[in-house]
Amino acid sequence: MRGAGGIEVAISLFGPDVPRTVPGVIATPDSIARERPWLGTYRLVIRAPLIVFDLYWTKDEPLRIMGFSRGDWERTLLAAR
Fold first, then answer.
1. Within a 10 A sphere around the Cβ of 11, how many other Cβ atoms?
2. Which residues contact 12 (CB under 8 A, 6 or more apart)?
3. DSSP designation for 47
4. Max CA pair span of the chain
């Protein structure tokens, strides 16, 4: 999708299926560092055009926020609702 400012935003979901929910608990930065290497079952990525939002998770484990960068892409997603 392209926003009003011309920013191209792409959303990708990787995993064996489309889950109905994501875990309600978020992993702490310390636990993310301590549990390396770790690979989740699912990954949600938003690019604008670089990765601006990156989540990993596995059912029944805390959600891992691997990257988040504020920007105009947020307005583009809100406008698309």
1. 13
2. 43, 44, 45, 46, 47
3. E
4. 41
